[in-house]
Amino acid sequence: MTSPHLATTPLEGSLGGEPQGQRPARLDVVHLAKSYGTGDGAKKVIEDLTFSVSAREIVCIVGPSGIGKTTLLKCLAGLQPTSGGRAAIDGREISGPPPEMALVFQDYSRSLMPWLTVRKNVVLPLRHLRLPKAELKARCDEALEAVGLAHAENQFPWQLSGGMQQRVAIARALAYRPEILIMDEPFASVDAQTRFDLEDLCLKIREGFGMTILVVTHDIDEAVYLADRVVVLGSKPARVLRIVDVELPSPRDQIGTRALPEFAAQRTDVLSLIKRPA
Amino acid sequence: MSKRPSLKSVRLWLLGVGTPLVLLAVWWFASADSTDTFFPPLAEILDRFRALWLFDHFTSDVLVSLRNLALGYAIAGVAAVAVGFVTALSAPIRWAVDPVIHFLRGIPPVALVPIFISLMGFGLEMRITSIALAAFFPTFIATVDGLRAVDRGLLDVASVYRLSRGERVVSVLLPAAGPQIFSGLQVSLQTAFVVMIASEMLGPSQGIGAMTLLAQQSFMISDMWSGILLLGVIGFAANFLFDLVRRKVLAWYIGSRRLARAS
């Protein structure tokens, strides 16, 4: 695919990344392409994607549904090989699941082990890290507390509502303490109140743990509220329409920030990009 | 959801326990004055049952049969799950093994017994091998099917969180395929039971099957009936034990299915 020497070449300036230019890029996606199958029957899902995510940045990817956002995340998580271009963390090409990354999947019902209780699901990825017992417990307690599920730790996932299951999946990612957290429409199945709480949790963990966060969402308000930058994708096959810098004061809060005229302007900006006939 | 059993479930439970008792009572009274050689009174059969199986032949035959069954079944279960894993997870092995397996599974298990007799004689090895081999296939096939059907999503989770190979097997694959493996084990138990009896009915030998056949050939009809009765009791007990284990191990599965049906 890509020759090894490319992995160490510094990246040519990331698109629209000027305000974050001083921060080093952690996650780089350069001319990434993905198609399934080969030859004439090949189905192109991603044409050419280029964007980057800097350290401690929250980037949201928005775009019409069914344009391969999940495929993109699977490539970034090293679950699927790319067909062209490259994706790298700190300049190292992603060739398998990177150790510094966690992924919250869109389909929570297929991401939790139904035979494990909530707590054991959270502990599962931590076992091979060989943490001291006390730390293991502390991380697990803290993560469950953060998503408000400390009371449900001994229940099985299938005894919980969809929103609660997704929160377990988020707690599992938090306890793993990844440097880079990727989430695929993580809040699509939770009620509005929980959704606000989880969005704020997302902002809080960026501050608390210095995580770099990439979120795919179809909710433009959510993208603008969360992100430092919004990557707007167009179809088909997927390509970057524009990268919008979100200039909203922080810390953000659900009532104040969403009431700002700048918030409305930004979301109109993004929305008009998506609505515009391609 | 409530802890107290509903009236309906109590009624069903009574039906479950009551029906066999009623059938036994019918048998008891209908056969009470029987003079037919082939259908002796149940009282007489139970009398022989007590004399034969609880005292005389308990260690010499009943225990021998049960030990063969347990050993053969255990070997089959462990081997089938292990070979099933290797087969399901390695494409070359799957291609190599599949045709052979489908050839062998088509042969009725009982038909294999004569081969083992000619290879190993009438000893214990022959019996245990016959039981193990016959019981191997249902669990093996179920294990392979179960592993192939493991949800892609769960495997992705295992990859993203970089679970080790061992963790993947123990914490993801084995439990995910658990429900199917248990269905296989249940069929294997029945097969093992059939082959246990069949292997005892050939050659001069010990065991419940041998004793029952011998009784029939010597016109000791009550003894024969008592043997059949004992086989029924053992089969029932084995299934009961199996179900206890299954309910314990697959509690998560049974619970989630019940919840899914209710909603």
UniProtKB/TrEMBL annotation, chain A:
<feature type="domain" description="ABC transporter">
    <location>
        <begin position="27"/>
        <end position="260"/>
    </location>
</feature>
<dbReference type="Pfam" id="PF00005">
    <property type="entry name" value="ABC_tran"/>
</dbReference>
<dbReference type="InterPro" id="IPR017871">
    <property type="entry name" value="ABC_transporter-like_CS"/>
</dbReference>
<keyword id="KW-0813">Transport</keyword>
<dbReference type="GO" id="GO:0016887">
    <property type="term" value="F:ATP hydrolysis activity"/>
</dbReference>
<dbReference type="InterPro" id="IPR003439">
    <property type="entry name" value="ABC_transporter-like_ATP-bd"/>
</dbReference>
<feature type="region of interest" description="Disordered">
    <location>
        <begin position="1"/>
        <end position="24"/>
    </location>
</feature>
<dbReference type="InterPro" id="IPR027417">
    <property type="entry name" value="P-loop_NTPase"/>
</dbReference>
<protein>
    <submittedName>
        <fullName>ABC transporter</fullName>
    </submittedName>
</protein>
<keyword id="KW-0067">ATP-binding</keyword>
<dbReference type="GO" id="GO:0005524">
    <property type="term" value="F:ATP binding"/>
</dbReference>
<dbReference type="InterPro" id="IPR003593">
    <property type="entry name" value="AAA+_ATPase"/>
</dbReference>
<keyword id="KW-0547">Nucleotide-binding</keyword>
<dbReference type="InterPro" id="IPR050166">
    <property type="entry name" value="ABC_transporter_ATP-bind"/>
</dbReference>
